[in-house]
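Note to self: the last two entries modelled the partners one at a time, which told us nothing about the interface. This time every component goes in together.
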Amino acid sequence: MPTLELLLGGTSERDLTRLSEYRAIGGYTAIEKARAMTPDALIVEMSTSNLRGRGGAGFPIGRKASLIDRKSGKPKYLVVNADESEPGAFKDRQVLAQAPHRLVEGCLIAAHAIECKDVFIYIRGEYLTEYEILAAAVEEARTAGLFGDVRVTVHRGAGAYICGEETALLDSLEGRRGQPRPRPPFPPVQGLYAAPTQINNVCTIATLPTIVNMGAAEFAKIGSPSSPGTAIFSISGNVVRPGNYELVLGTPMRELIYDHAGGIADGRELKAVVPGGSSVPALTPGQIDVPLDYDSLAALGTFFGAASLIVVDDRCCMVQLALRSTKFYMHESCGKCTPCREGTRWMVQILERIEAGDAELSELDLLDSVGVGILGRSLCALGDFAVYPVHSYLKHWRSEFEAHVHLGRCPFEGGSSIEGIVAPSDLRHDVGVTA
Amino acid sequence: MNAPETVHVRIDEREAQVAKGTGLVETALSAGIEIPVFCYEPRLGAPIGACRMCLVEVEGMPKLQAACTLTAQDGMVVHTARTSQLAAEGQNSTLEFILVNHPLDCPVCDKGGECPLQDLTFRYGPGNTRMSMEKLTLEKPIPISPAISLDRERCILCYRCTRFSESVSEDGQLVAANRGAMSVITTFEDVPYTGAFTGNVTELCPVGALLPTQYRFEGRPWEITNVPTVCGLCPVGCNVHATVREGKVKRILSRNHPEVDEGWICDKGRFGFTHLRSADRIVDPIMRVHRHGFEPVSWDAALDEAERLLRAAKGRIVTVLSGSETVEQTYALAKLLRTGLDSHAAMLPEEVSNALDAYRLPLSAIGGADVVVVLGDVAIEQSAPVVDLWIKAARRKGAKVLYELNESDVRKAERAVLIWSGPGGRGGATVAAHAERLGVAGAFYVPETPNGRGIADAWAAASDEEAGATDSIGLLIVSGDEAAGNPNVRALAERAEAVIATSMFHGLAVGWADLVLPGTSYLERDGTYVNLEGRLQRLRRTASPPGRDELEWIAALAARFDVELSPSPQAVFAELSERIYGGLSFGEVGERAPLRSYEDAPVHVDVPPLPAPEDMGEGLKLVCYKPLFSGPAVERVAELQFQRPQPEVELSQADAKARNIVTGQTVRVGSNGTSVELRARVSKTLRAGVARVAQEHAGGLLGTVEVSA
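The predicted structure of the combined assembly is written out below.
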């Protein structure tokens, strides 16, 4: 089926990691156009496009850029968040690996808009190959004289999920322990080295060349009026063809799961879809006709998030899935704020008892209540991310939790499978509870 | 400067009016409302919002907010847990989470009874726990240094200690390792936490996690009394509390004087008190007996002997003072000797000049300066450690800190201060002359002794007579251990017909003084000290000395010479205050003493010129300094031995480069045919032409030295 590819366009025909190939399809013409515009005009263009942040929060890029105080006398920084660490998310990875120049060109456009001379791309430490490809592309573009007086630095993270949180990323970039900062002050006012800083996701920035080339007004017509453009959807779990699919926003979720990804494998039943990476509330099979855009997903009480769908079939025990997911967030909790640090560990302890069949019925309420204690009260969103999925599993699949209590064991009797849904638990550090 | 804008905030139906920018916690406090906190501590820099104890509801904001991270805005409407169900639920869950892995071992915890966690758990929170699962257990206690132990189970990860280390002492040694619930406070590679200020983290810790090893299992809050006094171990005079149990000092705590110390004290002041109970403490007078040696004698016999020696000297008495005597003690001794025995000759501990008096400001002015010039060749951290914290605070706020006198920078500054630490300061006259010439309002001089100024003034107050020239010394009086340990004093003793010394410890004066009277510590005296700012401060007796109080036996001895002298420090102060402190009463000195006015001080004081320096020839000028962790008290404190200075020579970057020397290298430092091997350290703040060595590592070096790889 034909799809519109703005981010990955050309990657199946050409090796776009090479500057010459990227130029052959019109690469680095957008930056020339952008530089012919004033920064103000460019920010208006970004606002007109109504491009919303692809990192998860969906904040319009134009508004973000307009918050940068360009008159403060301090340097302005652009930081690209390439620390893609959300379980289920691998969209940025493909852009980095196959269309790095699109990101680099986007960086130069955004830098021009906010009058910034220093761009930092913070890339997930585990993305070694992607780092090498990106670093080579940056070097090639620099050597070709495309940067002008802008410096682009690619910085590798060291393996902490929390460094995908924008303020923790800034602390890490400054050489500190990656832990979130209180907000306000927000990064556009006081970000990297206490200077005005714009932070965007890889896909957001990599969309900018397209917007400049086709014109913001044209771009805004693509897809949902409130969420224009395309997104790369990472789909994983129990589907026939897991992978990345670039689709216009507003495409029904059912189309992605059944048409593009080939539906549920082996004639199994669909049980749940976690639509935005493992940190968001899950949807039930009855909800999958939802259009994949920010507002439609929000209306169902979940999030567009990292445009990453985890599809779960009927072999999976939801308690086991909750436990696995919560262990991840416990392990990745940075330890700065109390609710997330203590609450995630407590949730794991309760979930282990439920899964083992040792829990009493009241512990389901305790689990829910511990989640309430974290939700909205932690320093950053990581605490919420740990709770959202568990609360949704408890809400939609409570009978499954209760069955563990009543039977005194997992009703799947060891036959549950989370294979292909999430990575196996690999907690090498002793965290005081069984890994 | 415009007056700060006033904003109106409504908190729990009460109105608060504060200056814009005031923290919400302080704003609430001004309206009589407590917002409980653990991690929040304004002295540690920007708030971090970590503990979540201060959650409040702010109208117009969707989620609960950490009050500590917000500042008062006009029209803000805030509901604390008192009036907001949501905030109360947030606070309850925070406290429940904090206690989920806390061992609740209050009955055996030294912090119990004076623990913010205990107090806030009592006042707030759900009152019971729903945690029935296994708590996290960790190895404990861990000595993060010989002076401080860490219980990681009790730690609630408020990051106060790591922020102190990063943003106040700037030593960067305490860090958090690991993540999430397994986060622990540690030093890098588990090396001991070393530095001048480490002990402050034991007071910042809001739980029983970081505790001074000296105080472990030593007292419970209902058995102790915290006596307000000032530290007498350096010229800063930090305000402290001495924790006393059953007549013994068990611990020293800071007592925030915002103009002097801001609540920080150094490790010497905090941990040095155990010298009081040193095994070699002299408790009875010791007398030379029939050439047979030295024997303890009764106080009556000792005072008889003192009287005999005083009379026998026939006025040919020389008195050497240590610099740690109180104003009252000095005055009493001076009155006895000068009016009773017409003996005016004294070796005062150091040169004192009143030239500085027109330029006196509180130490906190350094923290608010825009240019700080540090002159002299002894590092401030060694000579007056808390002053170094004020300099660091100024630098963090953007002040320029210079180690050479750049006059144009000083003239351009709005609030410049000058500081002198080291030889050549001439009692403050040198730096005062710079201040006068450059139009600078604030100048500081770091004396070598804790009460040099007070002693000089008190000695002078007792009589107007001048000391006549004496060619022989009938009696040498050596007051205190610093004087007794001074080789020059020892040489003087060789020339004296007799020697009386007061000394706290065996081994300093015993063996060469004919009569040794037990000395006392600043923690055992009542009286006053004058610190480096010129601030008169009150010392209180926190523990009884093992022997008689000095003032008391000086008064008893004075009576034998018909000199009227009260044994009460209050009466002695009243007498001398008429002469030098404008009749200020003892009670008015105050617990948080103000910097008295030096309004009448002359802007210019003539100082006799120094003789032209001798041509020192080639080489580097040797500066020997008394390190912070040295001296008779420190030598007797086990917990401070690891802090003793390294055998090092410090060189300027230029001198090091010229000699191809790098930090860590072993070098030979020589002068006049003698030499020592020391490790080199290249200092960013030392001026060229100087080699700096701690006194105890200088061997026989003198004058000019050559340093070679």
